[in-house]
Amino acid sequence: MSKIRQQPPITASPEEPLDVAPTGDLKPYVIFTQLKAAGPYIYAGWLEAADDAMAMDFAKEHYGQDQQCVNVMAIDRRHITASDGLYASSATGGPFTVLTQKNPGDLWLVAGSIGGATPQAAIAAARSTMTQAQNAHTVWVALESNLLTTHGDLIWRHTDQSYRLARGYGRIVRAKWTAFRDEKQLADYEKDDLAEAF
Amino acid sequence: MPVAKCTTIMTVPDHLKSPLIDLLLALADDKLFLGHRNSDWTGLGPILEEDIAFSHMAQDEIAHAQAIYEFIGGMTGKKADEIAFGRAVHEYRCASIVEVPDEFDWATAVARKFYCDHFDLLRLQRLANSSHKPLADLCARIAAEEQLHVDHVDGWIVRLGSGTMESRMRMQQAIDALAPHATWLFEPFDGLKILVDTKVYPGSDSTMYDAWVAAIKNVCLRAGLTVTLEVGSPDEKHGRHGVATPHRKPLLDEMCEVYRLEPGAAW
What we know:
heterodimer; A: alpha+beta; 2 domains; elongated; B: mainly alpha; Ferritin; 10 helices; 63% helix; globular
């Protein structure tokens, strides 16, 4: 067994809570993408930006280019309230958009919309009435009015972007390698053929 | 859907081929040089997300250039790589603004992109209404992507211009330094008139220039910046006639180094 495996797993929680406060004048935004029209919004990642406009710009550039999608949504982390207490927003009124994580490490999914006077009330209501939220490991809520979306603007480029992606790179490069190999094999065969015949 | 590659000889009348090739070479060379210059910022952007976004847009410019070179190749029978990297220095048709270095000054890089992207958008929108349908279709798709570039760079102009005293000063200096180069994007070339008359390149240069100046000034106004744009003498010859700045040759030597090792090599 390797030395790493011999070490016991870490069971003690850290002495101090995780510091999630943003630094500098950039704010963290969480990004969701909608791959197909009327499809669910799925967690894509995070980014830091100075303001909402910059966040949407970056969201389209970074997460809208990973795969073909029709919409991108960004939420300023200050507007998120988490059921595990990691994030807390002072927003009041509703409606709230509910986001759920079924198991630790799973992607977040947008579950729907719910009313509530406070974020905590919205979380409680989601837990009791929304199937997706009832057994979820963690639930987030954010005021719908604080969500940023692209409203159908162009995201996915029209020009062939497959060269940027692993699958595109693999397909294009493999095709070129196969063509080169076949050409070389033909050249070697012709050389051998000439050597035998003459 | 990805843009269809041009694999057949384009049916362009003979008397239009030469001026159309000149126009498209100007478009593609501008994009190739700008993409190459902007790709220098990969790994060096002011913040991580902008570094990635700027690199993406540099890739876009080169992808656009490739699509245009392939279109030209459909008319000439040459491959895109040969057109992009195999010409002599004086055969390129790019404007001087894409040749001058930015000395790794972010404000200069943003100002150059600002002038060029607004010009490119207008040029592509004119070509999207071309009487030559394959060209119109291609440019319509590229114009939609160019709009993203314009929106992005406008955001930076406004943000830096209306930011701190230092950011405004540096942005203003960059806008002023590149303004003389910017107007040469509109340098007229021989054959332009017949392309306009036959609606292959519909519209007029004066209308396009006015629209470009209005767009530039509008963004600068929002940013609290000033811009002075003056048209040069029509007798002067610059990039559209193959007259290169001292920066073009070393830039081409760098850009074409691998191609020149073995022209026509398969990758």
